[in-house]
């Protein structure tokens, strides 16, 4: 069953076309990446799913039925902007959000205790929210999204302001939710998070869907031949790669991602590299999502 079905949806704000006749299906138990540059239409789409705004045309179905206000009881929405009360203590804040969602007092206490401990912020339970760092507030907002155990999670930039350890914890919890049969829509600019977590993606640009499908199929269908070189030592040899039909797609101190263009030969490139650097590995790889993203957006522009 598709938890979300968007059909030919268009949304305008005055004369500006924010969402242009898009259709998306999101199956149950899927982590779905909703990607795109700023102004692509992602936030407008998310707001329509949450009934904050309505489509000008087209239809939205949730949980197999036409969208209705009571669907909000089954959705956990974490907006990119902070939706917290700065003067309210942490525990009281979570109690308030849980009660708004109809969570019983006994279950709410258990949930709050569990998540405060899981995120290691028990000692902050009585602190006012305004005293928390940006990362701590992000964790608090994530907890508030989960308290009523929704079936559909809509997470807009959930890793904003988080250090690597807490970002890893959020990723771990997202996978746990998927394994419990929950459906997650993940809107993020972090391509590495999408690569690690998402089953399917849709890439929006200028209000339209420009790429969509299963992540692995999108990568396989991109049509580029890519090679990854890991090396030790100086990268002075990179300038000499200009004699070969290759493009340097990404470059870090000890690693190169190369696009092999028509006529490129791995053997010839390696023959050039062997005397010039210490090669740790050379491997053919799928194009990274960042490369696909940049390609699609530049072509659409």
What does this structure look like?
Strand 4 (57-62) and strand 5 form a beta hairpin. The strands form three sheets. The chain has a six-stranded mixed beta sheet, sandwiched between helices. The mean pLDDT is 92. The chain has helices at 42-49, 90-100, 105-118, 134-146, 164-179, 191-197, 215-220, 266-273, 289-300, and strands at 2-13, 16-27, 31-35, 57-62, 65-66, 75-78, 152-156, 183-187, 200-205, 208-214, 226-232, 246-252, 255-260, 278-285. It is of the alpha/beta class and 301 residues long. The chain starts with a strand and ends with a helix. Helix 2 crosses helix 3.
List keywords for this structure.
six-stranded mixed sheet; alpha/beta; 301 residues; four-stranded antiparallel sheet
Question: How is the topology of this model organized?
Answer:
Blueprint: E1 2-13, E2 16-27, E3 31-35, H1 42-49, E4 57-62, E5 65-66, E6 75-78, H2 90-100, H3 105-118, H4 134-146, E7 152-156, H5 164-179, E8 183-187, H6 191-197, E9 200-205, E10 208-214, H7 215-220, E11 226-232, E12 246-252, E13 255-260, H8 266-273, E14 278-285, H9 289-300
Parallel strand pairs: 3-8, 3-9, 6-7, 7-8
Antiparallel strand pairs: 1-2, 1-4, 4-5, 9-10, 11-13, 11-14, 12-13
Helix pairs in contact: 2-3
